[in-house]
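cron nightly-structures :: item 1 of 1
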Amino acid sequence: MTRVRAFIGLGVLALIAGWIALAPPARAQAAANADPLGQAERSVVRVVTVSLDATNSPIALETGSGFVVAPGKVVTNHHVVEGAPAAATVETFVIPDLDAGGAPQRVSVAQTWSDADLALLNAPGLGSPPIVIATVAPSKSATVHALGYPGVTDELRNLPLSQILEPQQVYVTPGSIALFSSVAPGGRPIDTIFHTAPINPGNSGGPLIDACGRVIGVNTWSAGTELADNGELSMPQGQFIATRSDVLARFLDEAQVSVKLATSTCVPAALQTLEDRLSGDEAAIALQKELIGRTQTALDNAAARQKQLALWLELTGAALAALGGTVAFVLVRLRRLTGPASARISPSPAAPPGAAGEPVA
């Protein structure tokens, strides 16, 4: 949260009122980004609160971040929208991401949980898409990203208030998970994630997302500057803390807000594509192995049949040869038994005397 405690003046309130009334019509919504990070960015909003005193004069302006969890429902930190201690009333506004389309609008606080530093806002006219909430955190080796609108970035760019109140691109910082803790800063029993994705005042209430673009935490704390006993300033580095998404899911369930929950471990799109390709290659290899196996079986069967045919032909040839030899042997035996044709004609016996045809003496 970025906080300005100095007196702002009626001009600021008039500026905000005019900005809301004269906000340009919603620009055409950009086509959905193919990458999860780009899709998550479109769900993030800047949250602006104006604290007013009893005379309806602004006394403080604070900015933070938030994200859409359901149509017309925004989550942020409770400390972003609670306003200044001396405020009589607090006005809250949300500004959508530049690529999400839509205009800034006044919203109302629907529910808060101070111990977990969570707040739910009603934003019925907001067109930003809801983001998925993952109840399973990635491993420490996984890359995470913090999304939001740090005020120091606006200051470094020297943006005037009128431009800050217009849709801007989301500021994104990468990091990794350093520690899962069951204790929040201050000792409260709230599940938190210590991570290394840098956040600054103004990031409060923004999402911490995994590689699939799903919320795994709500950025809430960072280690502030401390004054040591010897008068030296201590500036801890890398202590960035988010309320875990399972705490957020419980908060939204109690608020009866239906959200998109993911209970499976994140598999990045590039890795999923590679796994799908490997699975496809494995299926193709398995099919080729099956075809090769079928072909080998067919070849083996053909070889077996050819071997059987050759054996049958060999046996048939042997049988025919044996039959031919038997036939020849029988014929020879018949010839020997019957002899030559001339030998088979017996000589006629001598004719007795007086046979016909011869004169009798």
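cron nightly-structures :: done
The domain at 2-225+233-266 is CATH 2.40.10.120 (Thrombin, subunit H).
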